From TrEMBL:
NCBIfam families: PRK05710.1-4 (NF004315)
Family of the protein in this entry: Belongs to the class-I aminoacyl-tRNA synthetase family.
InterPro entries for this protein: aa-tRNA-synth_I_CS (IPR001412), Glu/Gln-tRNA-synth (IPR000924), Glu/Gln-tRNA-synth_Ib_cat-dom (IPR020058), GluQ/Sye (IPR049940), Rossmann-like_a/b/a_fold (IPR014729)
Protein name per its UniProtKB record: tRNA glutamyl-Q(34) synthetase GluQRS
Domain of life: Bacteria
Pfam families xref list: tRNA-synt_1c
PROSITE patterns, alphabetized: AA_TRNA_LIGASE_I
Keywords: Aminoacyl-tRNA synthetase, ATP-binding, Ligase, Metal-binding, Nucleotide-binding, Protein biosynthesis, Zinc
Length: 295
C-alpha cells in the first residue's frame, strides 16, 4: 500500500501566525500518526501580494516548530501551465464562460435585481453575492470579439452546464484522528458561477488546489474549518476533471481573545513576534495541544 500523503500549503503574503502553526503541526502529526508523508506547497499565485521574504520566513518558522517536510517544495507560481491545462479540459467540456464584469458592475447588477424583486440576492457560503449571470448571456461571437480586443476577463464555471454533464449527487469523505471516516453531503451549486480563472492570474485558488493535490498524489487534506464549504466546489471540479478525491479533515480555527479568526490582514501576532519575545517552540506546541509532537 502507498503511504498517505499530507500537505501544508501556506501563502507567502505575510508572516505565519498561531493559526498556521496549528494547521502545520496537525498535518505533521497526522502524517506521523498514519505513517505518511508531509509535503510543503507554497501557494503564491497572487504575484502582487506574495513576497520572497515571506516565503523564506515560512521555511524558518516551520523548521523552528520542529516540522520537517519532503523536498522539493512545490511553488504554484512555477506551474501555471498545469492550471492552464486543467482549465483547457474544462473549456473543452463546455462548462466555463468568459466574464468581463468589474466588481462594481456586479454590485450594481445585484443592487438592481434586489430593487426589482424586493428580496435579498442569494449569497455564496463566503457571504459574497452570487454572480448575476451578466456575461453568461453573451454570445460566443460577442465574447470572442471582446477577448480579441484585449478586454480584461476571467472565466467562470457554468453551473447549469456542469449540472447537465455531471449532476451528482456529490459528497466527500471526512476522516478523524483515529483515521475513521464518514461521508459528508456536498452541494457545489450553492457557489453559483464561481470564478475559475481570475483576471489577474491564469488560475484561481479552487482550480490550482485541486490540480496540485492530484498531481502531488495528496490523499489526505487537513485544513481549517473556514475552507470546508469550498470542498463542495472542489469535488465538482474533481469530477469534471476526472481527478481522484482525497479525504478531508477540517479543523477548528485558532481565535483571538475576542473570538475572531486569526488573520494576516488583521495584523494577528506572528510567530516571529512570539519568537522574538522569547517564546519557545516547545511552548507554542504545548499551547496548541501538541506537547508530545513527534513522539
Amino acid at each position: 500500500m502507498t503511504k498517505p500523503v499530507f500537505r501544508f500549503a501556506p501563502s507567502p503574503n505575510g508572516r505565519l501566525h498561531l493559526g498556521h502553526a496549528y494547521s502545520a503541526l496537525l498535518n505533521a502529526d497526522f502524517a506521523h500518526r498514519f505513517g505518511g508523508r508531509l509535503l510543503l506547497r507554497i501557494e503564491d499565485i497572487d504575484v502582487t501580494r506574495c513576497r520572497p521574504e515571506f516565503e523564506t520566513a515560512i521555511y524558518s518558522d516551520l523548521a523552528w516548530l520542529g516540522i520537517r517536510w519532503e523536498e522539493p517544495v512545490r511553488r504554484q507560481s512555477e506551474h501555471f501551465s498545469d492550471y492552464k491545462a486543467a482549465f483547457s479540459r474544462l473549456k473543452g467540456r463546455g462548462v466555463v464562460y468568459p466574464c468581463f464584469c468589474s466588481r462594481k458592475a456586479i454590485a450594481d447588477a445585484v443592487q438592481n435585481q434586489e430593487a426589482e424583486s424586493g428580496r435579498p440576492w442569494p449569497r455564496d457560503p463566503d457571504g459574497a453575492s452570487l454572480y448575476p449571470g451578466t456575461c453568461k448571456a453573451l454570445s460566443a461571437e460577442a465574447a470572442e470579439r471582446r477577448i480579441s480586443r484585449g478586454e480584461a476577463h476571467g472565466w467562470r464555471i457554468d453551473m447549469a452546464a456542469a449540472r447537465r454533464i455531471s449532476p451528482g449527487p456529490y459528497a466527500f469523505r471526512r476522516f478523524g484522528r483515529d483515521n475513521r471516516g464518514d461521508t459528508v453531503k456536498a452541494d457545489p451549486w450553492r457557489w453559483g458561477d464561481a470564478m475559475i480563472m481570475r483576471k489577474d492570474v491564469p488560475t484561481s485558488y479552487h482550480l490550482s488546489v485541486v490540480t496540485d493535490d492530484a498531481l502531488q498524489g495528496v490523499t489526505h487534506v487537513v485544513r481549517g474549518r473556514d475552507l470546508e464549504a469550498a470542498t463542495d466546489l472542489h469535488v465538482l471540479l474533481q469530477s469534471l476533471l476526472g481527478l481522484d478525491a482525497p479525504l478531508y479533515h477540517h479543523h477548528e480555527l485558532v481565535l483571538d481573545p475576542i473570538g475572531d479568526k486569526l488573520s494576516k490582514s488583521r495584523g494577528s501576532e506572528a510567530l516571529a513576534d512570539l519568537r522574538r519575545e522569547g517564546t519557545t517552540a516547545a511552548a507554542i506546541r504545548q499551547r496548541l495541544g501538541f506537547m508530545h509532537f513527534g513522539t
